């Protein structure tokens, strides 16, 4: 008789692929290219030398990891995380893991101080500092240079890890850090440093894999080291009493609860106003770009020339409902709309006239040569209008900022891949 398969949530587990200090990874025959990761009720430090059972830890870590990867996936970062499968388990794409820890730091602390004698604790890295370590418990995860990683000649799922791949992973690590730093800042918590791992999926894509939970970072509420809520509390203990484990568990629960507050959306709006319904295609392009960036949009039709009272009524209504508000004015021929809005509101106004090549030289001046006292800007491409509005919203909305940040990285990485393919 074949062995009865283990079941987790609604999934039948396949072979055990690998087991580490805190997780087991099982194949998932019902979802090709995927695996299921089971967290253990286990906390470890010092390359596994210090280790304790901690009832409930698997469930808390699983929650935390799911929320963190939820943020990263929403921001558009390529990750292996798919979804939570049960209290203790989640589904990921199946990867061959790159045995490197990618560490990003905002403030100097911990091992950095030992390796960089003379640097005081709390030294602020701007931009963040990035370091790589080879995953090798027996040799205490030695720091590796790019040259060492290239020379290792790693090939995973057919992908050779060369300098281009390292550059891409380094930049992705920094973006992951910056996104989570901004997210935690909304809870007045300082993300001090963190480590992530990458894997190569069966389709050859390099993605953020493994887990990100309270074991992965240092997190100081109010930027105060004494208030730390992460695994460092455990690392610092010389003896571990039952009460200490309880404190650590409560800290981890606190972190998971805080993450629930972070996912809340902000009260912002971008209003696209068009002077005539004939501009609707141009407006639809702006709206699509904004929606892709996670920005809330409303499109209205109103002519400042022909319906001045209505235009101002619309303006006053949105001013009273949103405190993070941007207007985009779309008007052909003479653009009265944008300048009228701009002369009557404290909120940013972006002109995006739907100019055509035969009349651009005449019409553009109505958007550019505006009376004194007005501060509207003018762009001609729908994407540019959307990006500018999103950048303004992103000043106070970490998710919009994050999507913009990831977009920059995707643009850069596309060029890197294109360059590599061109020279292959
Ligand atoms: N998406 C994935 N696909 C395949 N293996 C993974 C994935 N995510 C993590 N792993 C691997 O799962 C193993 C178990 O994790 P863990 O217990 O944290 O191990 P370790 O003690 O080596 O850190 C690790 O070897 C890790 O690289
Ligand atoms: Mg691990």
TrEMBL record:
Protein name: Multifunctional protein ADE2
SUPFAM superfamilies: N5-CAIR mutase (phosphoribosylaminoimidazole carboxylase, PurE), SAICAR synthase-like
UniProt keyword ATP-binding, yes or no: yes
GO CC terms in record: cytosol
GO MF, any single term: carboxy-lyase activity
Pfam families: AIRC, SAICAR_synt
InterPro entries noted in UniProt: PurE_classII, PurE_dom, SAICAR_synt/ADE2_N, SAICAR_synthetase, SAICAR_synthetase_CS
């Amino acid at each position: 008789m074949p062995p009865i398969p283990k079941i987790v949530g609604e999934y039948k587990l396949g072979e055990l692929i690998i087991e580490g200090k805190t997780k087991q990874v099982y194949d998932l025959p019902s979802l090709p290219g995927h695996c299921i990761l089971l967290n253990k009720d286990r906390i470890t430090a010092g390359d596994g030398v210090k280790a304790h059972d901690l009832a409930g830890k698997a469930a808390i870590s699983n929650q935390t990891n799911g929320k963190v990867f939820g943020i990263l996936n929403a921001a558009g970062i390529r990750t292996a995380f798919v979804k939570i499968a049960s209290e203790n388990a989640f589904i990921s794409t199946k990867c061959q893991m790159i045995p490197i820890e990618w560490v990003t730091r905002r403030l100097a602390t911990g091992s950095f101080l030992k390796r960089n004698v003379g640097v005081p604790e709390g030294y602020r890295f701007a931009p963040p500092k990035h370091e790589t370590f080879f995953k090798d418990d027996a040799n205490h995860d030695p720091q590796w240079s790019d040259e060492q990683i290239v020379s290792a000649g790693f090939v995973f799922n057919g992908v050779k890890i060369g300098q281009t791949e390292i550059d891409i992973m380094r930049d992705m690590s920094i973006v992951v850090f910056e996104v989570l730093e901004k997210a935690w800042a909304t809870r007045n918590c300082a993300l001090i440093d963190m480590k992530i791992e990458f894997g190569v999926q069966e389709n050859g894509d390099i993605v953020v894999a493994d887990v990100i939970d309270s074991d992965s970072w240092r997190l100081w509420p109010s930027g105060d080291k004494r208030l730390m809520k992460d695994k460092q509390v455990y690392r610092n203990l010389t003896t571990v009493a039952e009460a200490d484990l309880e404190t650590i568990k409560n800290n981890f629960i606190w972190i998971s609860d805080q993450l629930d507050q972070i996912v809340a959306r902000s009260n912002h709006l971008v209003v696209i106003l068009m002077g005539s319904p004939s501009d609707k295609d141009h407006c639809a392009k702006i709206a699509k770009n904004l929606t892709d960036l996670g920005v809330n949009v409303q499109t209205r039709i109103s002519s400042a020339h022909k319906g001045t009272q209505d235009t101002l009524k619309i303006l006053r209504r949105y001013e009273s409902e949103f405190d993070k508000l941007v207007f985009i004015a779309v008007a052909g021929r003479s653009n009265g709309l944008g300048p009228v809005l701009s002369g009557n509101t404290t909120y940013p106004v972006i002109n995006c006239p739907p100019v055509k090549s035969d009349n651009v030289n005449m019409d553009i001046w109505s958007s550019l040569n505006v009376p004194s006292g007005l501060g509207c800007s003018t762009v001609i491409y729908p994407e540019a209008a959307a990006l500018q509005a999103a950048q303004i919203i992103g000043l106070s909305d970490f998710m919009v900022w994050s999507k913009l940040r990831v977009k920059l990285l995707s643009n850069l990485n596309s060029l890197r891949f294109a360059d590599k393919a061109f020279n292959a």
